[in-house]
Design a protein that fits this description.
Elements (H helix, E strand, L loop, with lengths): L1 E7 L2 E7 L5 E3 H11 L5 H8 L4 H6 L1 H17 L12 E2 L5 E2 L9 E5 L3 H4 L12 E5 L4 E2 L5 E4 L5 E2 L2 E7 L15 E8 L2 E2 H6 L2 E4 L9 E4 L3 H4 L4 E9 L10 E6 L2 E7 L7 H9 L9 E3 L8 H6 L17 E6 L3 E10 L6
Parallel strand pairs: 6-19, 8-16, 9-21
Antiparallel strand pairs: 1-2, 1-5, 1-16, 2-3, 3-4, 6-7, 10-13, 11-12, 11-19, 12-16, 14-15, 17-18, 17-20, 20-21
Helix pairs in contact: 1-2, 1-4
Length: 348
């Protein structure tokens, strides 16, 4: 299934993409199906099994998915039906406003330098190899067609096109062999990064004696990763059962139609089960948490050899000079975000 969070006016709802390309309100749709079947208190039951918020849908698990399938079957057979109190069940895509599938996740883990070409040539500390990550704040998240606001004072802001996976249920110290059951589905994400700000403002040298190991240059993934709108996502949360091989999906990005990134999930160094196990060793994972898998290397010669149908020269483009950033993950979806340059008077 392809699930989405959408708005009609001020009301936030959860929908599912039907075979005819329209969006079914899963809560009202299931309530209507229950009422037609003569069930008591159909809306109350639907509010429990198919609540109008994505995290609630995720928490309802496989039973909730089955309820959504029942709603889809009913709506397909009764395209003019309404909810128990006359509510609209089915919308054309142009009648709704798509939001991010999970508008306010409790945590967004972003896996850093997970592309095999970059990871294998990086200088690493002694000891076993392990993932590196940072946590983006929920206010970074915007919808698949929302405007990206880029402060003119922060210099070059770049595209990092990624596939993200969404946690299905609460867990801690998850064994790698059990990790796949913790994946609810996948969505498209672009992890916008203010490169100039990172390199010129967001670092500090900690002074230390020779005995303490000498001076250390420190950089923290704070502001340069976490401006509002720096995490566009969507349009759908695609359930895990829809994707045959998550380790072989193309990822691409365009700025005003110019192809600026291309790669494939097979190039991710750390795979999803290991990442879930690793992250859960330090953090309690909750339903609706998002893990962004890492960006692709770009259109270098190695990728050109693998994907001869694509001719793209990777470059660290400045998104602030463009109008629309488009990001696509094969089988998951495509987002297209207009760009607006704003001012940040805090940057000097």
């Amino acid at each position: 299934m392809k699930l989405c969070t959408f708005k009609t006016g001020r009301e936030q709802r959860v929908g599912v993409l039907m075979d005819n390309g329209k969006i079914l309100d899963v809560n009202y749709g299931y309530a209507a199906a229950l009422k037609a079947a003569g069930k008591a208190k159909p809306q109350e039951r639907a509010d429990v099994m198919t609540p109008p918020c994505m995290i609630g849908i995720i928490e309802s698990g496989e039973e909730g998915k089955e309820c959504i399938r029942e709603a889809m079957a009913y709506a397909s057979q009764n395209p003019d039906a309404a909810g128990p109190e006359g509510e609209t069940l089915i919308y054309a895509p142009e009648e709704i406003t798509y939001m991010a599938p999970i508008p306010a996740p409790s945590k967004i883990f972003s896996i850093a330098i997970n592309n095999r070409q970059k990871y294998e040539i990086a200088d690493l500390p002694d000891g076993p190899k392990h993932p590196y990550y940072f946590i983006k704040v929920p206010t970074c998240v915007v919808g698949p067609y929302d405007t990206l606001e880029i402060p003119k004072e922060i210099g070059n802001v770049g595209s990092e096109s990624e596939m993200a996976f969404v946690i299905a249920k609460k867990g801690r110290f998850i064994d790698e062999k059990d990790a796949e059951s913790y994946v609810y589905g996948y969505t498209v994400h672009n992890d916008l990064t203010a490169h100039w700000l990172r390199d010129n403002r967001e670092w500090i040298v900690s002074k230390r004696s020779a005995e303490e190991g000498g001076d250390k240059r420190l950089t923290y993934a704070g502001r340069y990763k976490c401006y509002d709108s720096f995490a566009p996502m969507g349009p759908y949360l695609v359930t895990a059962d829809e994707i045959e091989d998550v380790n072989n999906l193309d990822i691409d990005a365009w700025l005003d139609g110019e192809h600026i990134q291309t790669g494939n999930t097979r190039d991710m160094f750390f795979k999803i089960p290991y990442l879930i196990s690793y992250l859960s060793g330090a953090h309690t994972l909750c339903a609706g948490d998002i893990v962004s898998w890492g960006t692709v290397q770009g259109g270098d010669e190695k990728h050109a050899e693998k994907r001869k149908d694509i001719k793209v020269k990777f470059q660290h483009v400045d998104l602030g000079k463009g109008k629309v950033l488009t990001t696509e993950v094969e089988g998951i979806g495509k987002i297209a975000n207009p760009i607006k340059v704003i001012s940040d008077n805090m940057i000097k």
